[in-house]
């Protein structure tokens, strides 16, 4: 079993608009031994791309730095347009624990990367999510408000000095949001009702913002094609707020409104542990040691 | 994601009784690139050891052959004593699917290995479990009956010609049982009763032998230290008979006898999929694609 983490850097360029620059980043991502580029998303309208890379801490640190350097050398933010909010050539670099590594270690790693990027490339950073220096900076939207064009002015405000670097952006690469966070799980629960108000009431009860589960974001939506209501959730820390806990709470609240759960869905990738934890709960497993007893952890 | 399988060969030697021969086998297991020896069990009383090796099909085929050769060169069955039944220096070689490989592919691989062992080493084999040529040979205990000492006579019986090789054992290495099977999961469910008869009745109802779930072996036992009864199971094919199915059946039967499930336990290693399947069942997941949506499968 090895220490592994994931980084999902976002760059202000797209395969559709600038294939050569895009390919240069892909090649850079593939240039570091010990990590694997296992997904690339690109959107021409957003003029933005997102890489998913998994590897050892040393490899991930190195690849994050090299990609930032490559993006600085090849992307000029003074000429960038696109629908998605952005403030830098490398716009955001999240680090996410995968196996045998804690969130705290990812936070430390994020600081080392931000420091090196400032010292060697002269690009400043805001530390966000679990790496944030204050509550206000946790939220990416808050940090990025003003975007590339508004940053020179924003950095001069008392409370918006960068965490690394001086109070001015890099002229062409801007400024980066860097931070560690738990993996995000998109989890939706479908109800046997066409009354979206029930889903909205349930969502309001279970989400952290309104006093529910701290690491659960939720809203009620209508699935028009199936004519059913859905509680749509982002689980931002499945260890703090496990999937089975929100499932059981939704079941109980649905019952209170006289409706039932039809099914649920996971969108995209999920760490095995989030699901194994559910098996452990429902099978009432005693003394179960996930990392040692689940065979696959011995293979990665 | 790569094709991976597991082999768990058993050898008639122990670290305790013959450390040099034992070490020779460990070194051989470590000599093949593309596979990893990740567990070794040795028992002096049984005078037997069990290796757990995971790797690519080509590597597993090679390591199974090399280990059999090494065991033949260093173990003399005419001098072997030990409490565990055995019939060969290499006594049994199971092949077990891990990821991206079917049981059928493991059956084919087991035949290739048995053929090579006969042709290059002159050691005959019985094919057992899912590789068996007839129902009678599926069961290892049945195949091994008579043990090393009784094999020369057994092989002369009409129905006991080896699947590979002639009707005589290798003079010092004996004969081997080779076959593919699904991973075995040891799964126990604890009841809030000290009446072991209830556990025994439940076990009898759920096990394949008596008309219950085909791939479930079960018995009722008493946990003396906790003064509770337990349904102790071996799940021999978790895809055919999933854990949640026997759990729900035991719950229903326990209720019929007026008792409840206190908890359950998994002994030893479990494939992630067996547990993810439980999460999928209890969360009522729709359209869930385990191999694509569980991140860890992308890392092995």
Question: Can you describe this structure?
Answer:
The structure is a homodimer of 300-residue chains. In chain A, strands 1, 2, 3, 4, 5, 6 and 7 form a seven-stranded mixed sheet that branches. In chain A, strands 9-10-8-11 form a four-stranded antiparallel sheet. The first copy, chain A, is 34% helix and 24% strand. In chain A, strand 3 (35-43) and strand 4 (48-55) form a beta hairpin. In chain A, helix 1 packs antiparallel against helix 2. Chain A is an alpha+beta fold. The termini of chain A are close together. Chain A has two domains: 4-180, Formiminotransferase-cyclodeaminase, Chain B, domain 1 (2-Layer Sandwich), CATH 3.30.990; 185-298, 2-Layer Sandwich (Alpha-Beta Plaits).
């Amino acid at each position: 079993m090895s220490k592994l983490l994931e980084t999902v850097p976002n760059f202000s360029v797209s395969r559709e608009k600038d294939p050569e620059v895009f390919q240069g980043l892909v090649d850079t991502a593939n240039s570091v031994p010990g990590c694997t580029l296992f997904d690339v998303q690109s959107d021409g309208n957003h003029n933005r791309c997102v890489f998913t890379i998994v590897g050892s801490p040393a490899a991930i640190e190195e690849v994050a730095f090299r990609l930032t350097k490559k993006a600085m050398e090849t992307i000029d933010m003074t000429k960038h347009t696109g629908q998605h909010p952005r403030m830098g050539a490398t716009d955001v670099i999240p680090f996410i624990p995968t196996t045998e590594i804690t969130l705290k270690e990812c936070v430390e790693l994020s600081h080392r990367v931000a420091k090196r990027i400032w010292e060697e490339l002269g690009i400043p950073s805001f530390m966000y999510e679990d790496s944030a220096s204050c509550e206000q900076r946790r939220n990416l939207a808050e940090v990025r408000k003003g975007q590339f064009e508004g940053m020179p002015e924003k950095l001069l405000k008392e409370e918006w000095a960068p965490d690394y670097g001086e109070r001015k952006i890099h002229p062409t690469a801007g400024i980066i949001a860097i931070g560690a966070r738990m993996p995000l799980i998109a989890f939706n629960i479908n109800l046997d009702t066409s009354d979206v108000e029930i889903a909205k009431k349930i969502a309001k009860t279970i989400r952290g913002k309104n006093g529910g589960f701290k690491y659960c974001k939720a809203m009620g939506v209508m699935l028009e094609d199936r004519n059913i209501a859905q509680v749509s959730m982002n689980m931002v820390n499945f260890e703090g707020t496990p999937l089975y806990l929100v499932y059981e709470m939704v079941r109980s609240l649905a019952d209170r409104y006289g409706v039932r759960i039809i099914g649920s869905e996971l969108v995209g990738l999920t760490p095995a542990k989030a699901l194994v934890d559910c098996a452990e709960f429902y099978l009432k497993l005693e003394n179960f040691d996930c990392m040692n007893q689940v065979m696959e952890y011995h293979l990665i």
